[in-house]
Amino acid sequence: MTDSRFESCILLIRQGNSEGLREIYEGYFKLIFSVMLSVVGNRVDAEDLTSDFFVKLWDKLADCYKSGGGHRCWLVTAARNLARDYLRKSRRVELSLDEPNEEDAPRTEPKSGERLEESVLENISVNEALQTLDSAEREIVNLKLFAEMTFREIAKALEMPMGTVTWRYRRAIAKLRNYYKGVQGVE
Amino acid sequence: MNENKLKELYKQEINAAAPDKDALWRKIESRLEPKPAPVPAPLPVPAKKPRFTPALFKGAAAVAAALVVLVGARVALVTSRTSLAANDAAPTADSSSIAFEDMEQANSDSAFSPDNGIAPNNEQSAAPAAPSEPLSYSDLEFTSYSETVIKCLGAPYGGEYFVEEEILRETDHIVSATVARVFESDDGESLCYELCDIEWQGEDRQAETLVVESRSAYPMRRGRRYLIPLVEGENGFRTAFDGVPQMEYTSDGGLVYYNGWSALADSESTALLYPQEGEEDFFYDRMRFSYTADIPALISKWLSENQ
To answer: I want to staple B257 with a disulfide (CB 3.0 to 4.6 A). Which of A120, A156, B182, B247 is the partner?
Structure first.
């Protein structure tokens, strides 16, 4: 979707026409889901947050959009902010992109007791792959491999120096390679 | 497994984990609250059209006559053209093949021990004048060697955006050092450079050797001396920015650097053609060379960015 097409959809949303939201949803719901998954680390929460994101886009976010900065970066930044706010409110481990710490260690327990059954049914493969990475690496890899953003766009979206982005990306790729070789036997 | 295969697998995983598109949309749609219809903007009141009168016709005729007089006059247009001097001159030597002279010191597989014959770049009173025409990298004088340059295969070109202030903010140290040894990292993803003869710029620190990791597509060469911004992390040292060639000293006291390092700018620098490393290398013709590059200014800027 081009920036101009995106702006047309935003205009429709502001006018109360849900077709604008539907078109943005059709184009980017997987990207938003992948961003949520890379931040919160589990499929159930990621799906709920994806839903929340598009509702929020309808309610408020569309009014905040300003053209000129690239709509994909804007979507990623907004989605990421929503996910991080969710984690803070849930009193989970505070994300720090500056220094990976022990709290970024892989999580194997479900987030809440109410979702224990759902957590068990999650896609174990995705969780295992992502859990080899720390939080910053998960986000960067997702934006590079799935969203196919440039390092510059990623640095802007994550508010991180370019050198740090590329460095962490390379380290994350090495970890994923080792994971796929060891678990799935992929050479 | 190459990165494209990894990308394919990762995308498959995410696509498999993604929720059903239509089911999720129904869930979202059910939560959308109708928005109040936008208030239409009031229609502009059209201005009254002027009636056509004989007086109006006479006035229009007078204006038209005046215009005819003006259009009949000749107007001289002066254009100026400025010639773009930088980077346009053909290289004076074949930049695709770099010939090195044999080193005075013996080459061996052991760590390199450089001499100290490299003149510091800040001796401005004795510095020769930089050539006025663009140079080729192969024209410069370096401590030479005859072994193959080790390159970091697969490293990207041009995917990083150079912002001097951002790089300096991230930089923990700036060193002048000689590359004693080059080897691959344990994971094979980057190159490691063992540095010796280290001068820590702007800080009082000592180290006989240092290992620096780098993912740059522009290799540093064994036996050469560089001015390198570094980041110090829990896993050791790495180069602060890999998107452009590292700043490199020549054996006669000059400095080769990417023209984005504005703090180094001086009126005596000249354009330099660096060896092009590949089709996607867009930095090879954005290099400068100078005997009077303002390294103290770069160090001062780095220190001020990190106060």
So the answer is: B247
